[in-house]
C-alpha cells in the first residue's frame, strides 16, 4: 500500500501503545487481571492452622491401604470405612480418621 497524502502515516501497534500509555514499561505496577499482585513470595505463605483437619484425597488413601482408588470408593460407599468429606465436587478424607481406622484394624464403620 502506497502512502496517501490525505491519510496519516500508519504506525505499528507498539508505537501506538507507547504513545497512549502514561506508564513506561519498566515502571508499571505488577498486576494480574487488573488487580495489584500480592508482594509476599510463595515461600512466605502462612502456615496451615493445626486446629483444622488435614484432608487427603482418594489416591493418598489408596496408597495408605495398598489398594486402588476404586476400591477406596467402594469401601466408602459400602460404609466400611470413615465417610469422606465432600467439598463441592471434591472428595476428601480426614487424615486423622483414616489413621485411627487403620490403627484399629480397618474395622467396618
Total strands: 5
The SS-based structural class is alpha+beta
Separate helix tally: 4
Instruction: Please tell me how large the radius of gyration is.
Output: 29 Å
Helical amount: 25-40%
How does this structure look, described?
The chain is α+β, with helices and mostly antiparallel strands. Among the domains are: 13-37, no CATH class; 55-103. 32% of the residues lie in helices and 13% in strands. It contains 4 helices and 5 strands. It has a 3-stranded antiparallel β-sheet. Helix 2 packs across helix 3. It is elongated and about 90 Å long. The model has no long low-confidence stretch (mean pLDDT 76).
Write the layout of secondary structure elements.
Layout: H1 13-20, E1 31-32, E2 35-36, E3 55-56, H2 58-65, H3 69-78, E4 85-87, E5 90-94, H4 95-103
Antiparallel strand pairs: 1-2, 3-5, 4-5
Question: How would you briefly describe this protein structure?
Answer:
By secondary structure, this protein is of the alpha+beta class.
Note the main attributes of this structure.
109 residues; alpha+beta; 3-stranded antiparallel sheet; 4 helices
Amino acid at each position: 500500500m502506497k502512502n496517501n497524502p490525505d491519510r496519516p502515516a500508519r504506525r505499528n501497534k507498539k508505537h501506538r501503545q507507547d504513545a497512549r500509555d502514561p506508564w513506561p514499561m519498566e515502571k508499571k505496577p505488577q498486576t494480574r487481571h487488573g488487580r495489584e499482585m500480592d508482594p509476599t513470595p510463595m515461600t512466605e505463605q502462612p502456615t496451615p492452622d493445626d486446629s483444622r483437619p488435614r484432608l487427603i484425597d482418594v489416591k493418598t488413601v489408596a496408597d495408605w491401604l495398598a489398594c486402588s482408588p476404586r476400591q477406596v470408593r467402594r469401601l466408602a460407599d459400602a460404609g466400611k470405612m470413615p465417610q469422606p468429606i465432600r467439598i463441592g465436587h471434591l472428595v476428601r478424607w480426614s487424615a486423622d480418621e483414616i489413621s485411627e481406622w487403620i490403627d484399629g484394624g480397618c474395622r467396618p464403620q
